[in-house]
Amino acid sequence: MAVPARLDAYIETEKQRHFSRDFMIGWENYETWEQATVGDSGPGLRTFRIAEEDIVSYNRACGETDPMMINPVYARQNSPTGEVLQHPVFVTTIAFYSLGEKGIGTWIRTPGARNPQQRIEIIEPFRYGEVITTTVTTADKFVQRNKPYLQMLLDFHNEKGVLKARWWCSLILPQTQADVARFANA
Question: What is the pLDDT of residues 23-35, one digit of tens each?
Fold first, then answer.
């Protein structure tokens, strides 16, 4: 499935230019509910170096208009950190970028997945230049109301090992590879 060209206008950062927006590519390699094992843990496929443009672009995409969130010059002079303030769920862009297309955590890209619950704790703001590593752990998997739920814990650390944020992400997933295929090939 091709990504509509009308979305190209929203691609503003270097990371966005190199990030595949077509989540149908490689779906055959995505982890399914059936394959997930509670307690499995591992690193994301990529690290995420925080750049000013990443934060500004995300804030703008969220519809922010406060100059502390979208104007770097203003933020340097007025922000308590001297940097653009981050939208509270900026961590989600780090997760999607870091988890990648193979290995543990690929379920986040699964065609047909639904998102019933999230809990994000920001321990401290991300800072320009930090290199963030994402560790993903399968926290729980269960069936509720005949739907397969998968809950993952994502921990985000900087290059010094400082915990920056935690995200408990729950999704209702297609249960098997065949179920994912029905969504991917619809």
Answer: 666 667 777 888 8
